[in-house]
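Review form for a predicted model. The reviewer records the input and the model, then writes brief findings.
Reviewer: anonymous (R2)
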Amino acid sequence: MPIFNQPVKAKMDARMQRFEDFVTMIAGHLGHADRVGPFRGYCAGLMLPGKRKSVEPMAARVAPMEVRSAHQRLHHFVADAAWSDTAVLGAVREHVLKAAGKRLGAPEVLIIDDTGFPKQGKHSVGVARQYCGQLGKQDNCQVAVSLSLANEHFSVPVGYRLYLPKDWSADLARREKAKVPEDIKFATKPAIALHLIDEAMATGSTPHIVVADAGYGIDTAFRDQLTERRLQYVVGVTSVVSVWPEGMAPLPPAPWSGQGRKPKLLRRDAQHKPVSVKALAATLKPRQWKNITWREGTNQVLASRFAAVRVRCAHHDYWRSELRPQQWLLIEWPKGDAEPLKYFLSTLPAATPIQELVRVAKLRWRIERDYQELKQEFGLDHFEGRSWRGFHHHATLSITAYGFLLAERFALPKKTVQDPLLGPIPALPADFRPRGSPATPAPRSRFDRNPAPRTRRRSDRTTAALSMLRETN
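Model under review:
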């Protein structure tokens, strides 16, 4: 009896052909024909059902009759082969945007964020005790900065790079062991974000609005660099950021005494100084606050109370001779809360309605969705190697598989019943044993006194087929 009925089988055959076309398209960016097979197998392994998406479990799923050789091919492809992450991500980007087409519209914003991967030990590249968003605290982890293109309907990662802490950057022995390229020097996360933006702008048209959280928005130099690139922004800031409220500005330069250089620096003093955004929020009148709804959530409409005022940023500005231009300060203060919840600075035009400021600021949720799908469904955090190249190759392949599935989702009408992506998983051979399993019993019965128990890792259990990505409002 067939596993699938004829209509479902026809759909799967068509999808498999689209997958082969996708592989052929990416193949031109891999640099060598011998890499096409491992690329196909790796992406298929990431999309097939399975709790673990590291190399060996995937090899067992995609090539159950030759697990060891498949494991070697996949491992070499991800850890050692010298293909370009930037080129592959660029091809995935074009594929997704073409599939989105006019129905879902062009991307509106560039979203900058970072994500952490908890790790044990100290040998995996870039691992250090630092803040891990996944854990919500300081712990041993790796952190990567990413860039996504997004609008209201979809998002796709187009840039990804590991943050290398200072102690790693200066440790030549660890760098050599993890095969960190010589040209990779220490860079802050905002600096890495700017590098990813420059790469994206060089490889294709990009939106002109950047969205980021307070980890990036608090950095004055980062915001200035965005403006120098003629990019607008809506970025989070913390409550201590200082601003000049509308109607206030720094004092002019001190009067010239007639000797020495003429003073040029703007001034502040104990009586005339900027205020924190938190203090400014407390002075706003009730009529300045508006209840804004920005989208339908999974269970309810998402709404809160906001105020938007024009300010001049003053944070750490002690050596400026020119007045900063005005920009928006957007404040979220839910009714009934003791203090504001979030603050944003934005260089969107002065005529921008508050509803639009809120909508753009809240688009950052899209990247949280990316991380959730990439980690839960595509094994972004399952890489078990230690090298710089392997870390980035695995992430690129996870994003590649995600991109293919995004394009497939775009082609489906809403509420379509979704069948398995690549069909059923071939059964593992009876004698397959994952590395590290107890030895099998002796082949001769007279030596078989205490047979070792058969064990199976969670990653080897047969699981339900992976459905297409869920549609989320």
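Findings: Residues 1-83+412-430+456-468 form one domain.
Further findings: Residues 269 and 406 are 55 Å apart (CA to CA).
Recommendation: see findings above.
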